[in-house]
């Protein structure tokens, strides 16, 4: 997306593009993507032809398959890999492949040793993300069933929003949970409520 945006700005400039292209790329739901992209099309109808000609790959999260559980819209992984092999790029093909094999095995061994020190099924970095994201969830309203909940609230401009969380299938109507493999804010709010209910039931004072 960053390369797309760099090329895009050479031809199209203005607030309507700045305010809608990245939100369109980050949108998990097709209807949210379409809302933002329509703003861009309304400003410059020829953008459809431009995108089809120069950027016809999948560049929005709403276009990704849930089966890959990945929501990256940048090329950080590619940049990281290029930096990792920077010093061996000039080697002859056979030596390059052998060196890359050795580096990969060393990396896997290092990660295996680090992983053996972990406990539980969730990586520490993911736990930190959850702790950070669960702050301020009290503003969300929840109407719950056994495994399903309607989570709702208001945007900053007081427009209402609503999503449905289904714990048994690890899904939310916002699309983020099934796309990333990690509970979204709406799912975390529901899970947090269930934890407090279980905790209150365990207190016998």
UniProtKB/TrEMBL annotation:
A Pfam family it matches: SWIM
Source superkingdom: Eukaryota
Segments forming a coiled coil: none
Keywords: Metal-binding, Zinc, Zinc-finger
Keyword 4Fe-4S: no
GO molecular function annotations of the record: zinc ion binding
InterPro entries named among the record's database cross-references: Znf_PMZ (IPR006564), Znf_SWIM (IPR007527)
Residue ranges of every copy of the SWIM-type domain listed in the record: 163-195
PANTHER family reported in the protein's UniProt record: MUDR FAMILY TRANSPOSASE, POLYPROTEIN, PUTATIVE-RELATED
UniProt name for this protein: SWIM-type domain-containing protein
Organism: Arundo donax
């Amino acid at each position: 997306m960053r390369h797309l945006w760099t090329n895009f700005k050479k031809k199209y400039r203005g607030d309507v593009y700045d305010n809608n292209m990245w939100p369109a790329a980050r949108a998990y739901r097709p209807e949210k993507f379409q809302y933002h992209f329509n703003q861009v099309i309304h400003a410059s109808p020829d953008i459809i032809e431009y995108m089809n000609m120069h950027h016809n790959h999948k560049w929005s999260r709403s276009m990704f398959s849930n089966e890959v559980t990945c929501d990256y819209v940048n090329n950080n992984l590619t940049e990281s890999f290029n930096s990792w092999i920077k010093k061996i790029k000039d080697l002859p093909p056979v030596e390059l492949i052998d060196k890359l094999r050795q580096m990969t095995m060393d990396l896997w061994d290092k990660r295996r040793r680090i992983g053996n020190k972990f406990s539980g099924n969730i990586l520490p970095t993911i736990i930190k993300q959850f702790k950070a994201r669960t702050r301020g969830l009290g503003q969300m309203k929840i109407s719950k069933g056994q495994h399903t909940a309607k989570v709702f609230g208001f945007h900053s401009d007081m427009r209402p929003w609503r999503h449905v969380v289904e714990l048994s299938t690890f899904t939310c109507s916002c699309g983020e949970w099934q796309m990333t493999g990690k509970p979204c804010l709406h799912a975390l709010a529901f899970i947090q409520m269930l934890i407090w209910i279980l905790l209150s039931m365990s207190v016998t004072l």
